[in-house]
Amino acid sequence: MNNLIETNDLRKSFTTEAGALQVLKGINLTIKNGEMVGIVGASGVGKSTLLHILGALDKPTSGRVLYNGSDIFLLDRNSLSSFRNKTIGFVFQFHHLMPEFTALENIMMPGLIGMESRNQGNRNFSHKEVKEKAEELLDRMGLSGRKRHRPGELSGGEQQRVAVARALILEPSVVLADEPTGNLDTKTGGEIFDSFIRLNEEKKITFVIVTHNEALSKRCHRILKMVDGRIINNG
């Protein structure tokens, strides 16, 4: 498998009243196309910060993030936004669905925004194609009967399935998931993880998953353990 993501001496610091706080302290990692990689470690070791930088939601203080060999932080703001929209899907612990829209409309939203922006490189789906894709994803997530329900009418597991489908609407190369089962019971969390595995096997989507759940992390192809802003095993 080819390398999809590489980081070189990735560092991130934040300025506080007490001085500079170093969160990432020289991260070197490689993630291949089609891998499922779990990132584990105690709270506060930098897992979410790393994921946000891999997803171009935040910039490193120093170091590089390469996708297919190209440093994404050399892109200008508009190009970086376009890259993020077409390449990366995000799933967070909190689903961040828009309460006034139905499940179907929430899933469609990234595709509709892409239609409006027409950023270079974005997939220019028509409205019909976006809707059909969203309905297909709802069916894949076992929610075909819930497409007209708003988030407040869905269970926590159903809301997270909608969030997963939304992350997939633009057919990203990689899904970055930050504690995606953290607010779910064991059974529902396992079902969400099952959907990740199916998508990885069937669609070859790369997954990078931050989780405290040791049992779920062991289902990934590889586990990276973080301690104090560093990866101590890259197996």
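^ that was protein a. below is b, sequence first then the tokens
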Amino acid sequence: MSENTVVMDEQAMQRAISRIAYEIIERNRGTQNLAIIGIQRRGVVLAKRIAEKIREAEGAEVPVGIVDITLYRDDLSLLSKHPIINGTDIHFPVEGKIIVLVDDVLFTGRTVRAAIDAVLDFGRPKAVQLAVLVDRGHRELPISADFRGKNLPTSSSEIVQVYVTEFDGENKVTINKAVKDNA
């Protein structure tokens, strides 16, 4: 038996995405030389939403790319003999750009490390920054988000799930707290 608690509803997600977009603009003094890359799957949706908020605020189009880290994972052999590849699409040069990687949940840091490795295969950016909707702690690598929608302290047994309309039909973030079954 488990109990799901909504920790961000649709409005909270929208506010967090807007805040992240404005923080990216402020930190980088505008959008010049800026590009956003979403980590497959939900990070891509969030990256597009952040880019749209930046466009609304600054009137500038920021290129958005997609990175699939499947083949860069350090646990690939543990996943499957035939992992599902969703595809990478970085249609702009990363050389000398400020790249903002976007993911839904920051946990151990291993996904982000893999995403950085994948991006570096396309060239050497001026800088790589990290934006996440939820930072839940429990890092195994020295990686920290530059922009975060919500800090959510969790136990390692809890599951944080981000739902987006494009895949799930709704926008929300839940935490699943495992409860012992007394049956």
